[in-house]
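job 3f2a | input accepted
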Amino acid sequence: MKVIGIIPARYASTRFPGKPLADIGGKTMIQRVYEQAMKAHTLTEVIVATDDERIFKAVEDFGGKVMMTSPSHQNGTERCAEVAQKMDADVVINIQGDEPFIHPEQIDLVAKAFDGVHETPAISTLIKEDVYNNELLKPSRVKAIVNNKLDAIYFSRTLIPFSFDSSKASSGKYYVHLGLYGFRKDVLLELVKIPPSSLELAENLEQLRWLENGYQIKCAITNLESKGIDTPEDLKGLTITG
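job 3f2a | predicted structure (242 res):
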């Protein structure tokens, strides 16, 4: 089984224009993501997918592999699919370009979900167990519900499961979704042809489109956090070297 990693990276971010080229301890963000991905044991290749010449050149300058993609893509999944279509691969891991501290072990967890002898999922992703806290209530922290086989049942920006008895909420077990995805290549190429679904539009969560259309999403549990960079303020106070 050949597994490749694709890092979608665009320049035109509303909250943080030029984010992939932001300096973090002397290296661009995209370089740090790339270098972390290259440490994953399961990946045979890592490619940056971009629509911007500045990002393209920056990746070439540090010796990374990069491909230009259409500027019309609506999201990273579509950008990954364009690159995947041209690659010899069985599984594609979509690695977010704004997570410079992603752990290689997390990438391997997502990739190993496809190692099953008798059955392999259509899609895999990561969840992390959490306890009731104020951060968990934020819409930016996407929550997940899974069954006993760790197949995703639902994702939401609201707190799920809802505790009818509010006094029990603080003792419940919750899962936070981490936006790292693995796809069988054939499935990825199918997904980008499906129009947005009603649940996706309601929650602004692309993975709900896949669930509504009957695709299995296998979840792996990690105990590692990965700090994403959404705004310039997220870079303040970072002291990273190497």
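job 3f2a | Residues 29-38 form the longest helix (10 residues).
job 3f2a | closed
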